[in-house]
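step: validate -> pass
step: tokenize input -> pass
step: predict -> running
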Amino acid sequence: MNVLAIPLWLDAVAVGFGGLAGALAARRRDFDIVGVLFLAVIGGLGGALLRDLLLQVPVRALTSPWLLPSAFVGGLLVAPLLALVGPLRFRRDVAFTLLDALSLAMYSVLGTDRAMTVGLPPTSCVFVGAVAGVGGALIRDVLINETPEHFKPGSFYVLAAIPGCISYFLLRTLELPVLVSALVSIGVVIAVRMSSWSLDWQTGRRRRAEH
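step: predict -> pass
step: emit ->
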């Protein structure tokens, strides 16, 4: 089966969403502009870096002239986004979770696609896709001294990425067009992630606070 390489424009859009989510995380903690842009780069490019390092291919985040600027643009868009959603904490939480879900979904699919292009077996393709999906957010959370959400009991994160990776692999195996397969699989990840968040699906019991 011939699998198309990841389109650069789709990679750039994913980086932009990841950068915006990283910048929003920085603003929620009152970081200055340097911190906002730094987390934008980490959130936007972390998944791409981990993906390409795992696959031992040229790091597209550094060789492309478009990806690093896309992360910066995502970081700079955080101010208009916050002005749009307003001061209500719930609306800002929804915006952050949705942006995080978009970044998770796109990089999970892109990571799976890139793994397929180098001929990895199905399980490895899903693994690379999941790592690429969660990588930016994981590094971001570590840098802001917060336990990564991936490891805490709570709404689905990695468990949202995996169905999307499997969906993309199966749809491409059936030789559906790349864009159709990508959009369907991205929708799967977003649906699982946002449903688990809004309906309070839990990966485990939260430990009660000690008094």
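step: describe -> DSSP finds nine helices and no strands in the chain.
step: cleanup -> pass
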